[in-house]
Structures are given as C-alpha cells and as structure tokens.
Amino acid sequence: MTELEPHWAAVFFAYGTAILLPAILTAVSLQQSRLVRQHLLRLEPDRIDS
Amino acid sequence: MNVKSAAKHPGLANPNRFVRLTGIALPYLWAVSAILLSTGLVWGFAFTPADFRQGETVKIIFVHVPSALVAINVWLMMLAASLFWFIRRHHVSILAAKAAAPVGAVMTLVGILTGAAWGQVTWGTWWAWEPRLTSFLILLLCYAGYILLWRTLENSDLAGDVTASLCLFGSVFALLSRYAVIFWSRGLHQDASLSLDRQTNIHDAYYVPLLFCIAGFMLLSVTLILYRTRTEIRHRRIEALQRTGQR
Questions:
Q1: B239 interfacial to chain A (CB closer than 8 Å)
Q2: Using an 8 Å Cβ cutoff, are B116 and B68 in contact?
Q3: What predicted TM-score, i.e. pTM, was given to this entire model?
C-alpha cells in the first residue's frame, strides 16, 4: 500500500476535523430541538408558535 | 403575549417574537451557509495551487483561519450578550450566550486541531507553548468552564450572572488570541493572513475562496446559535410550565 504524503495527510486530517466536528454539533442541535419541541407540544398542544 | 410584556421586551428580546422571526429566517440561513461552505471548501481543496514553500499544506488555511476567527468572534458575541444581560436582564440575551458556547467551543477545537496538523508539517511540531496557541488553549478551557457552569448551577438567574462574569474574564484571552501576534513578535505563529489593507494580504488565488470559507463558517455559526437559542427558549418554557403544574 502506498503511504500518503505528509502534506496531503495533514490536509485530509484538517478538512476531516473541520467538517466532522461542526456536523456532529449540528446533528446534536437538531436532535435536541426535536425532543424539546415534542415535549413542549405535549404540554401545550394548542400553542401554534411552539 | 400581552401588551405589557411586549413593551417590557421590545424587538428580539421578546421570546415569542424571537421564535417567530427566526423561524422565518432560519431555512434561508441554513441554505446560504451550506452554499457558501461547500463552494469555499471545494474551491479551496481542489482548485487552488500548491504553495512554493508549504506545498499542499497551504490548503489548511481554508479551514484553520475561518474556525479560529469564528472561535474568537463567538466569545465576543457572548460578551455582548452577557453585558446586555447585566444591564437589561433580558433572558433571550443570556440564553443566546448559553446557546453559543458549544458552537464557539467546537470552532476553537477545530482551530487548534487544524493548526496542530499544519504546524506538524511546517514547524515540525504539533504544539508549541507560544502566545497565540497558549491563549487559544485557555480560550477553549474558558468555553468548557462556561458550559460546565450552566450545567452545574440550578438557579438559572444565578447561572446567568456567574457565566456572564466568566465571559468578562475570558474576553481577555479571546482578545489576546487575536492580538497576541502583535504583542509578542517571538512566537512561531505567523502574522494575520488577512487585513483590511490589501497590500499585506495573501495571494488572490487563496484570498477569494478563503473569503467564501470565512463567510460560510460565520453564517453557519450564526445559524446554529439562533437555532440553539430557540431550543433554549422552549426549554425554559417547559421548566416554567412544569413549575406552574407542580403548584
């Protein structure tokens, strides 16, 4: 197997980190929002703005 | 929402209005940040030339500089929101600061990790105890402390006061990580890559995609902060309803 050149390895690591970490945060934020919204709708089913 | 409440909390300081207006804006913000980010990242990664000295490693600039810029600016935004909380006691402002902390922490971590990968190839070391790197590490610890304080303190008003105080203290390191390269000239870290004076900027081949990446990272952070603030407002509403139900 050919070894990756150090320059490219560093670039892949940096891009991977910069895409993966914000993507995880976005996924967690979406999931939290969904759960909180469902909980609030159970408490206030008539509230349109919630 | 009654008239008295609207008068007490004008504009976006009113939680109901904040949820309604951000609900309209958020789909557009998600879309524009996705377009800017994908354009900037693909352009930077695939269509920029290798540097004559750094080789392909120079492409790390398109993720390192934007994440570091956002990391500092999110803390400054939290500072403004905390000051607003101290002065006006608007709950939306301190909830926005609370919602922003994980975004800033992730961006700080991205800035440190991408910088470490860059440093390993160009400086021959992952880490150096030099002014900018050290102040950035302290900024990450400030973010961690801020998030932990919110999780630890049960009284939300007290948590707002304590975390806002930490925010004032941490601002020293946020500003230090921005200006450390000017205060101390002996560090390993290079000078700022961008400036309003175009003569000191990087070459146009890198400059334009970098602007796309910066705009994309900034807009993604703003979108995430608004989205997470809506969740915090709803969570606060649930707590209030549960308290009323227990009485």
A1: no
A2: no
A3: 0.90
